[in-house]
Structure formats: C-alpha cells, structure tokens
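Suppose a colleague, Dr. K., hands you the sequence of a protein chain of 116 amino acids and asks what its three-dimensional shape might be. Before reaching for any lab equipment, you can write down a predicted structure in token form. Begin with the sequence itself:
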Amino acid sequence: MNPQYDLEVIRSAILSGEIDDAAKLIQKNMKKYERAYNITKKEIFKEHTSILNDMMLVLEGKKGTKELKDKMLKMRIYGEDDYEAFVDSFIYILDYCLDRYNVRWPSFDGKRCDDL
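The predicted structure, expressed as tokens, is then:
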C-alpha cells in the first residue's frame, strides 16, 4: 500500500478526463485504507483516507482545492523530496482539469467545457 502511488494514479485519471474512474479509485482506496487503519492503527492510513475524502468533496464541488492543498501541506504524509512542489503540482493539475472538464461529479458528462 503506497498512498503516493495512489495519488499518481488518481492524478493520471483526472488528467486524461476520466473523472468517473478517478472517483471510483478514490472511493475504493478510501475503503482499503480505512480497513488498513483498523488493522494496523498506522496514522498514515487514516490521514490518507482523510485527504481522499477531501479530494472527493473537491470533485463534487463541495470544497475548494485551496482547502485540500492546505490539508496536504499540513499533514506532510507523502514522501517527496520537494514536498511543497509535489503538492503544488498536484493541486495545479486538479484545478486545471476541474476547469477544463467542468467537473461537478457525479453530473460530469465527459465533455470539455468549451465543446459543443
């Protein structure tokens, strides 16, 4: 189980416009990490689940990416050398794709916001 790897897969799905896949991955991983936390009591699993939950709320339009970014910076659970650049990059791509694909999951229809 690697939370950082999960974020990369989710980012890839969002970047390619597969918002439904990203949402399914987030939900699946939330369940997986909740079970892992219940067994191991490792805080990283609980914290990652919390971040995934916030990410789902961002896709639903109930939270902003700034709140997600602040939470990710505060928790510092992903093992990157330049952690702030990692979070900035992730949030930039998320912002870009939310705008490009006009995402408000689950009503996302798979078209770009300027497509007719």
